[in-house]
C-alpha cells in the first residue's frame, strides 16, 4: 500500500455508531483475488462514496456486505451482524440496489413494489407501495410495466424499491450510471434527505461530481482500498502538484505529446482547451515545465488537483505496485 | 500508453464477401457450441438413448408377463399346467394368491397382468374325461400387452398333459381354458391411451413450466435482487411451484373431461382419489422441473434437460409400450420415473375402479420422487453468487 493510505482519517467513531465494520476482507474468484485485505468502517448517517475503476472490486465488496458473497478471508459486521453467519438478519435491514436493473420487467411498478413489501413482511404492502409511488413521483405510472420505463424512471423505481422496507443501510451499486444530469441531481437530493434521517448509504460511482457530494469517500483499485476520508483529505493526501495550461487546441496536442513521459511529469490530461499537468514531486514538476512556462502562447496556472487527477494518479501508482 | 485507434488502418478485402461473412458466423457458432456442454451432450445422448431404448428395452410382443395363479386344489396336474404356462414364454408366475379376493386385488393394482384360476376337483374331472375348464383373467387395459399372450393359450392346452399323463379321450382337448378380458373387454386402445395421455401431457407441460423458473431469474438479472432479500430457498421453491399445481390441475381436469365426453372413457374409481393423486403427480413433475432449473446454467440447458427427461418417460413408463415386456433393468429405470407410477394410478382408477389401498405403492413412490427432487433443488439452489 502506498503512503496515501496512511492519510489521517476522521477520529474513530463509537462502536455503536459504526454500521459497517469489516477487516481484511479477501475474495477470490478462480484463485484470482478480486478484493484484497480490505478494511473499512462506515458510520451511521454517512453517505460513503465508493470509487474505483471498472473491475476494481467495488461490486464484490458490496455483495460481501449484504451476504450475496462469502469472503474467503477476513471478518466483519454489517449493522452489528456477522457478515458470514448472520446474513439472514442483515438482509432484513439492508436495501441493495444492483448495478443492473433487477426488478421484474414484466411486472408493473405497483406489482414490483407490492412484491417487495410482501417479502419483507410489511403489514400492509399495498398501502406501502401506494405511498412509495406517491413519494417517488411515479403517480400515473403505477400500472406501467417496469421494463417499459425510461432509464431515469427505472432508477427511481429501483431506489424506491430498496428503500420501501425502510432499511437502516442502503447499498447502491452505480445507481446513476446512464442517467441524465437532472435525474442524477434529484437522485442525490433524495439520498441526502435519506441520510439526514439517519440512513447510512454506501454508494459506488464513477462520477467525480457525485464523489464530491459524499461525506466520505474511499478509493479502491485492483481490489485494494488505497485511500479513504473526506474529499479534502484525499486531495491533500495525494501530494500532487497540478498546473493547468490553456492554449488553442493545435498547440495543446503537440504540447501534450511533448510533456508526456518527461521526468517529473506523472500525468498529462486534456480538458477541452486546457491541459492538466501533474506530478507527485512538486519541484521536479516545476523544473520539467520551466522551459515551457516562458512560451507566450501558453498560459500556465498552478491549481488544486481535481479529484479525477488524484484518482488517476492513484490508479497508475497502484498499477505500478501491481506489476 | 498505447493508442486504441491504429495509426495505419488495416486493409480490407474487396467485394461483397458473402461467403466470408457466412464463414465468420459459422466459426462463431462452432466455438459457442463447443462451450455449451449440455448441447454437445444432447447431440450424443439423444440418438444413443433412443437407439438403446428402442433396441433393447422396447418389446411390442412382451414376454414373461407377471401372472398370479389361484390353485383351488393341490395336484400334479395343476403343477404341470403351470409349467406349460411358463413354457410358452409369455407367462411368469409371480404370485400364488389364496383367495379370489386376493387375486382381484393383484389385478386391480396392476401387479400382475394375468390371473389363472384352477378350480377344485380339476384333476378328478380330468381323469373322468369331463373336459373341465379353468379360468384365465387378462388385464386388458393395454390390449397390446395382453394380446399375444392370450393367443398362446391354445398351446398350453395341447402341451400341458401330453407327456406325463395318460388321459382318456386323447385327440380332443382334455380341458378348456376360458379367458376373460377384464376392464376393457372390447379391447379398445383409446381406453388405454386416453388415461395415458393425461400423464404424458402433464409431464411435458409441468416440466417446462418450472424448468425455466430459476434460470429465467438468473438470465434476467432479477436473481441478484431476490437473493439480497430476506427469503429462503424453500420459500422461493414452493412459491414458484404452487401456481402451476393449480394450472396442472385445471389441465388434468380438462383432459379427463374430454376423455369422458369424446372417447367414452369411464371413471370407475373415485374421482376424489384421482384428483388427489393427480395433484401429487403434478407437484412431482413441477419439483423435477424446478430441480433442473437449479442445475442448469441457462434457459436453453433447462429445456434440453427437460427433453432428455421426457424421452425415457415416454418410452419406459408403459405409455407407448408395455411395461411388463421390458427387461428388468429398463423396468428399474421406469420405476424411477413419475409417469410410470401415475400411468398405473390413472389407468387403474379410471378403468379398473382401483381404490387408494390398491395404489399405495405407486402413490408413495411418486411422493418419494417428489421429496428427492425437492431436496436436490433446495440444496442445489445457490443462496449466494459465490
Kindly state the percentage of residues in helix of chain A. Answer: 25-40%
Structural class by sheet pairing and helices of chain A: alpha/beta
Shape of chain B: elongated
Order of helices and strands of chain B: HHEHEHEHEHHEHHHHHHHHH
How many domains in all of chain B?
Answer: 2
- The end-to-end distance of chain A, rounded to whole angstroms, is 13 Å
For this entry, give a set of tags:
heterodimer, A: 323 residues, alpha/beta, Rossmann fold, Alpha-Beta Plaits, 2 domains, six-stranded mixed sheet, four-stranded antiparallel sheet, 11 helices, 36% helix, globular, B: 386 residues, abc type-2 transporter like fold, five-stranded mixed sheet, 16 helices
Characterise the protein shown here.
The complex is a heterodimer of chains A (323) and B (386). Residues 1-16 of chain A have low confidence and may be disordered. With 323 residues, chain A is of the alpha/beta class. Chain A has a six-stranded mixed sheet with strand order 6-7-8-3-9-10, with helices on both faces. Chain A is built from eleven helices and 14 strands. Chain A has two domains: 3-236, P-loop containing nucleotide triphosphate hydrolases (Rossmann fold, 3-Layer(aba) Sandwich); 241-304, Alpha-Beta Plaits (2-Layer Sandwich). The longest helix of chain A has 16 residues, at 181-196. Chain B has 386 residues and is of the alpha/beta class. Chain B has two domains: 65-182, abc type-2 transporter like fold (3-Layer(aba) Sandwich), CATH 3.40.1710.10; 189-380, no CATH class. In chain B, 62% of the residues lie in helices and 8% in strands. Chain B has helices at 18-35, 37-57, 76-87, 100-109, 122-127, 143-151, 153-160, 189-211, 213-220, 222-227, 233-263, 271-295, 299-316, 328-335, 338-352, 360-380, and strands at residues 65-71, 91-95, 114-118, 133-139, 176-182. In chain B, strand 1, helix 3 (76-87) and strand 2 form a beta-alpha-beta unit. In chain B, helix 8 (189-211) runs antiparallel to helix 15, helix 12 (271-295) runs parallel beside helix 16 (360-380) and helix 15 (338-352) runs antiparallel to helix 16. The longest helix of chain B is centred in the middle third of the chain and has 31 residues, at 233-263. The mean pLDDT of chain B is 85. The chains are: A alpha/beta (323), B alpha/beta (386). Chains A and B meet through helix 2 of A and helix 10 of B.
